[in-house]
Amino acid sequence: MTTVIQKYGGSSLExxxxxxxxxxxxxESKKIYDKIVIIVSAMGDTTNNLIGLSNEACKxxxxxxxxxxxxxxxxxxxxxxxxxLKDTGYxxxxxxxxxxxxxTKGIFCNAKISxxxxxxVNKHLNKGKIxxxxxxxxxxEKGETTTLGRGGSDTTAVAxxxxxxxxxxxxxxxxxxxxxxxxxxxxxxxxxxxxYEEMKEMSHLGAKVMECRSVEIGHSYQVPIYVxxxxxxxxxxxxxxxxxxxxxRSITGLSVTDDVLMVTLKNIPYxxxxxxxxxxxxxxxxxxxxxxxxxxxxxxxxxLSFTASAQDYKSVKEAxxxxxxxxxxxxxxxxxxxxxxxxxxxxxxxxxxVAAKMFRIFADNQIEFQQVTTSEISISYxxxxxxxxxxxxxxxxxxxx
Amino acid sequence: MTTVIQKYGGSSLExxxxxxxxxxxxxESKKIYDKIVIIVSAMGDTTNNLIGLSNEACKxxxxxxxxxxxxxxxxxxxxxxxxxLKDTGYxxxxxxxxxxxxxTKGIFCNAKISxxxxxxVNKHLNKGKIxxxxxxxxxxEKGETTTLGRGGSDTTAVAxxxxxxxxxxxxxxxxxxxxxxxxxxxxxxxxxxxxYEEMKEMSHLGAKVMECRSVEIGHSYQVPIYVxxxxxxxxxxxxxxxxxxxxxRSITGLSVTDDVLMVTLKNIPYxxxxxxxxxxxxxxxxxxxxxxxxxxxxxxxxxLSFTASAQDYKSVKEAxxxxxxxxxxxxxxxxxxxxxxxxxxxxxxxxxxVAAKMFRIFADNQIEFQQVTTSEISISYxxxxxxxxxxxxxxxxxxxx
Lengths: 401, 401
What we know:
Shape of chain A: globular
Helix content of chain A: 25-40%
Enzyme class (chains A, B): transferase
Strand content of chain A: 25-35%
CATH architecture of the largest domain in chain A: 3-Layer(aba) Sandwich
Oligomer: homodimer
EC number (chains A, B): 2.7.2.4
Low-confidence stretches of chain A: none
CATH superfamily of the largest domain in chain A: Acetylglutamate kinase-like
Pfam family, one (chains A, B): AA_kinase
Protein name (chains A, B): Aspartokinase
Function (chains A, B): Catalyzes the phosphorylation of the beta-carboxyl group of aspartic acid with ATP to yield 4-phospho-L-aspartate, which is involved in the branched biosynthetic pathway leading to the biosynthesis of amino acids threonine, isoleucine and methionine.
Radius of gyration of chain A: 24 Å
Number of strands of chain A: 18
C-alpha cells in the first residue's frame, strides 16, 4: 500500500477552474498511489482579504478570533475541491484541521502541532476515500481553533507525511528550488535535490519557497519532500538527506536578504559589560540581531557593528538612544541600504576553500563587503545595496549555480 | 441575573461599519442585561456567494461539504464582531456552533438541533463575557459540521433562549411583524404582539420574517420572541402566548402566497381508489399538496382540484402525465396564474362570522375565488393573480389590518 501527501498552494486553487485542474492532477495520482491525503491552502487572496477585514475591524485584532477567521479560508477551499472530486465520481471527504486530528499548543496565530490523531484520517483512507484536509490549522487543548503561522499548510503536510511515514509533495507556483532566486539571476539552475540542512539554511537566509519549520519537521522525521509546480509536470526538487557519497558540489545555493539594517557604534569604551549592555537592550526590545562584528580595542575604545531586520528599525533606534545618552562620545550610524548575500552548501563541511574563493571573487570584481560571518554550511556577507546585482552575478557564475 | 439572546441578520452585518453599529447596540444592551449571548448570520451576501461557488464547482454539490462550506460564513461574522467588541474594551468571545455545544441530528443542509450543551457558553457568561455564536450550524454525532436550513440562525437563537430560559430578540431589516406585508399594502399596521400560533400560521402561509420552525421551538418552550429592526429603536413585535382575556381582534394578519400552481382534473371516473392514486403519485414525486377540492359526483365522474408550489411544476407535470395515460378522457388543466390569500387570527376560535364576512367582501368587490379551505385559526382562498391587489386592499381595509 503506497501513500502520498500532496499539498496545493493558494495560487493553484484561486478559482474553480484552477481547482478542476488540480482535481485532475489528484485523479492522475490516484492511479499511482493507493492512499492520498491532500492538504490545501486558502483560495488565492482569501487569507489577505480576511486579514484586511480584520484590520478594518480594529487596529490590533484579537488573535484568538483572528485564528477563527483565517481558518475559514482553508475550510472553503477544502470543501470546494472535495465537491469537484466527488462530482467526477471519486469518493472524497473534506476535513477541517480539528476533524483531521491536528492538535496544537502554543500561542494563537503561531501555534505548533503537538500531535496528530491519525485515526479519523486512516478510517477514511481505509475506505478508499481521498482525504482533503484544510491546512494551516488545528485545535488546541481548549477546543479553540488555532493557526500555524507562515507556511502553516506546508507544516501540516509535512507533519501528516511524518505521521503516515510517507512522501510529501508540495505543489506550488514555482517549479522547484533554484540555486539562486531566478528573479535575481536569470540563468539560475533548478536543483534536482537539496539537503534538509541546506534548505533550512536557505529558508532562514531568505529563500521563500519553503518555511524553515516544515523543513525541520521533514528533517527530524526523514520525510522526503518533493517541491514542484502545480501547473505543469516539470521535474521539481527533492529535499532529502545529504548523500555524501554522491554529491561533489561545494555550494548548493545563494540567497539574498534585502532590507538589512546595519548599526555601527564607534568609540565605545571597551569593557565586556558595555558590549553586553548593547545586546541586552536590543534583546529586551525584541530585536533579533544577526551578524555582529567588533574591532580590536584601540586606546581603550572599540567599534561595534551589528545587523538586524529593517522591520525592527524603530525598536533599534530607541535602544540606541539609551546607549547614546550613556556614552556621549559614542557615534551611532544606522545604515538601511545594506543587503546580506549568503552562499549555502553542505559540501562546505568537507571541501575547504569556499571562503577563499569568495574573497577572490569579491576582489576581482571590486566588490567591498562590510562584514562576514560563517556557519557550518554557509558564509554570509553584508554589502552595500549598490553591489547587489554585480555580486549575485559574479558568485553565481563562479560557482556555476 | 437577567439574560438575553440577541440575533442579528446578515444585512445588519454586511460591512465592518454596520457591524460597528451593531456592536454599539450590544454595548447598550449590556447596561440592561447581565448576560448577553449574540447569534449572528453570515455577512450580507456571503452565503449566496458561497452557494454560487459550489454551483460553479458542480451541478449537485455534496451536501456534507456544502455544510462545511456554508458554516464558514457565520464563523467569519462572529469572529469579526467579537474583534470589534473586544477592541472597544468589552470582554467577548466568538464560538462556532460546535464550540457553543450545538448538537444536531438529521440530514446535512437541513439538520435539527438535538441538544445544546450549554456548559461552555455558561462558563464564559459567568466570567462576564459577551458570547458571540455563529448561528445556523452545529455538529452531528460524527463530529461533522451541519447547517440548519432556512432561518437556521433564528432557530439557533430561539433554541439558546429555550435552553437558558430567557427572552430572544431577533434583529432584522424590518421593524417587526405587520398584519400585511407592507410591500403589498402600504397602510399595513405593525403588530405589537402576535401569538405563536398566528405567527406559525402566517409563516406557513408565506410571511417571510420568521421561519415556522423557530416559532415552533419558541412556542414549545414558551420563549418570548421579540422581532425588531437592527437599524433603529422603533418598537417591534413580541411573539408570545395568546392572551384571550385581553385580545378582542378576530383577524391578526393577512398573507399572500404567490406562484401557486393549481391543477384541475376533470371527468375522473369516481372511486376513492382513483382519487387516492392521484395523491399517491404526487407524494411519490415529493410534491407537497396544499388545498384540495372535489366536486360532487355527477354521472359517475368528479372534478378534482389541488394546489402545489409552482417550484414543483416539473414533478406535478410528470405525475399528471401518468394519470392522463390511465384515464384517457380526463382533462387536465394546469394554471400557474394563481395566488393564495389567507387571513389568520387566533380570535377566529371564539369569534364566528369571519368566513361570512370574507365572502361578503369578495362579493361586494366582484372578486371570484376558486377554492376555499379553513384551519382552526385561518381561512385561505385561491384567486386568479389579477385579483391580488384588489383583494388585499379590500380585506385589509375591512378588518382594519
